[in-house]
Amino acid sequence: GAGFLGIRSIGLMSPGFKDPEERKKKLNAEIANGRLAMMAIIGMFFQDGLTGSAWGDWALYTDSPLRAFENEIGVQPPVGFWDPLEFTKDGSKENFQRRRAVELKHGRVSMYACIGYFVPEYTKFSGELSPSLGIKFSDVPNGLGALSVVPLAGWLQIIAFCGFIENTGFTFKQRKQIGWMKDASMTSEKGEPGNFGLGWIGAFNTIKPIPALRQRKLNAELANGRLAMVAIMGMLFQNGTFGTTGPEMWSIELPEYANTVGDFIPKNLA
Questions:
Q1: Predicted local confidence at residue 268, as pLDDT
Q2: Which pLDDT belongs to residue 35?
Q3: Is 91 exposed, middle or buried (0-12, 13-18, 19+ CB in 10 A)?
Q4: Which of 67, 81, 197, 221 is the 20 to 30 A CA-CA neighbour of 252?
Q5: Per residue, what are the HEC states of the chain?
Q6: Are 192 and 98 in contact (CB under 8 A)?
Q7: What pLDDT score was predicted for residue 10?
Q8: Which of 265, 27, 262, 246 is nearest to 142 (CA)?
Q9: pLDDT averaged per 10 residues, the chain (length 270)
């Protein structure tokens, strides 16, 4: 007779559940939870008595597929290894490397895309983009507006160039084994996601790498790429919704009296 959640036992009145089906559902849930708790506490007692720890030691589960990629590049604080959709629960190294190559590619493209939003606001190429159509580079608007101004032949050239890079892996002469679920960097001699064999900063291996610095730079690239993917989606959304592309996209408009604290005069007293 303690009522719902037992609140009658502390002097509060509770009408209980008026709906019989709802009451039945709660009673069934209580019994199910109680059965699970009985099994759980017995397991805790057994493990505590056997190992001295009721919760176990995560460091002991070294063979778990959930721990197969905890030491990979890109596992950074404060999140650590974060895989909420459990893509890596099968522990497949091949699948992980393919997804890492895709992540790197998307991150690099997104970083270029972010730069493509910033730079044209301040400078553009001189000359004509399409002499036959009389379109200059200065005539091309920034952002999504460029899609309708750049001629079809221009887009085809861009796609062909990207395909050429993808097909040769920046060697410009040796064709790579690419295709569905295949990346050019994964079929090269290095076999490392995102590594096309060009060395540090793409200097064609003329700069000797420093292992510790290389590890740091690779982590930075992944972090910057992840941020860029979020950033470019925000820019595209704002550009498409509000039509803004320039400094008004990322600047904050301050009140006219916000810059000089010493001369602060409320507007209603000016």
A1: 56
A2: 94
A3: middle
A4: 221
A5: CCCHHHHHHHCCCCCCCCCHHHHHHHHHHHHHHHHHHHHHHHHHHHHHHHHCCCCCCHHHCCCCHHHCCCCCCCCECCCECCCCCCCCCCCCHHHHHHHHHHHHHHHHHHHHHHHHHHHHHCCCCCCEEECCCCEEHHHCCCHHHHHHCCCHHHHHHHHHHHHHHHHHCCCCCCCCCCECCECHHHHCCCCCCCCCCCCHHHCCCCCCCCHHHHHHHHHHHHHHHHHHHHHHHHHHHHHHHHCCCCHHHHCCCCCCCCCCCCCCCCHHHC
A6: no
A7: 45
A8: 246
A9: 53 61 86 92 81 63 67 81 82 85 92 92 89 91 90 92 78 67 66 75 71 87 94 92 80 59 54
For residue 28, give both structure tokens.
């069934």
Residue 182: φ, ψ to 5°: -125, 140
CB burial of 12-24 (b: ≥16 within 10 Å; e: otherwise) equals eeeeeeeeeeeee
Query: d(Cα 155, Cα 168) in Å, to the nearest integer?
Result: 20
User: Which residue matches tokens 């993808």?
Assistant: 166
Tokens describing residue 15: 């009408």
